[in-house]
């Protein structure tokens, strides 16, 4: 198997994007949620033709992007709330994460 980990950190292929990770704590009986920005580096790719949603009325692009990273990106089922990625002024809610050997491929839908 070919190891592509080096490509995930190669300056010729990577972009900078921000992962917004939500966390919170109970204060005086009330849950206070906060967002923490984390800077990630990795390739950002548009969706393939299989990732375009087709509906009966017409073809429609959902505004999805794929984010590749050596750092873990979380889904709702793992943390209680999904991470969100910000790239070129748009924010994407992470809807799917595919872990590979030592990197992650996350798919986000524009919100």
Gist of the model:
With 111 residues, this protein is mainly beta.
Could you say what the CATH architecture is? Beta Barrel
Strand content: over 45%
- Estimate the helix proportion, in percent: under 10%
Q: Assign the CATH class.
A: Mainly Beta
Structural category: mainly beta
- Total helices: the number is 1
What does the largest sheet look like? Answer: 7 strands, antiparallel
Number of strands: 9
Detailed description of the structure:
The protein is 4% helix and 53% strand. The protein has one domain (5-23, 31-110): Thrombin, subunit H, CATH 2.40.10. The radius of gyration is 16 Å and the shape is globular. The longest helix is centred in the last third of the chain and has 4 residues, at 76-79. It has a seven-stranded antiparallel beta sheet, with no helix packed on it. The chain contains one helix and nine strands. The mean pLDDT is 83. It is mainly beta and 111 residues long.
Describe this protein with a few key phrases.
1 helix; 111 residues; mainly beta; globular
How do the helices and strands line up, and which of them pair or pack?
Blueprint (H helix, E strand, L loop, with lengths): L14 E13 L2 E13 L1 E2 L7 E2 L4 E2 L3 E6 L6 H4 L4 E4 L2 E10 L4 E7 L1
Antiparallel strand pairs: 1-2, 1-7, 3-6, 4-5, 6-9, 7-8, 8-9
């Amino acid at each position: 198997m070919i190891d592509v980990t080096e490509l995930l950190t190669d300056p010729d292929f990577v972009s900078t994007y921000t992962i917004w990770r939500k966390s919170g704590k109970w204060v005086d009986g009330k849950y206070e949620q906060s967002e923490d920005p984390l800077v990630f580096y990795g390739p950002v790719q548009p969706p393939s033709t299989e990732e375009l949603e087709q509906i009966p009325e017409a073809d429609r692009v959902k505004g999805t992007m794929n984010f590749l990273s050596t750092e873990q990106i979380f889904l709702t089922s793992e943390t209680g709330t999904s991470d969100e990625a910000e790239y070129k002024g748009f924010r994407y809610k992470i809807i799917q994460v595919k872990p590979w050997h030592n990197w992650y491929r996350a798919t986000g839908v524009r919100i």
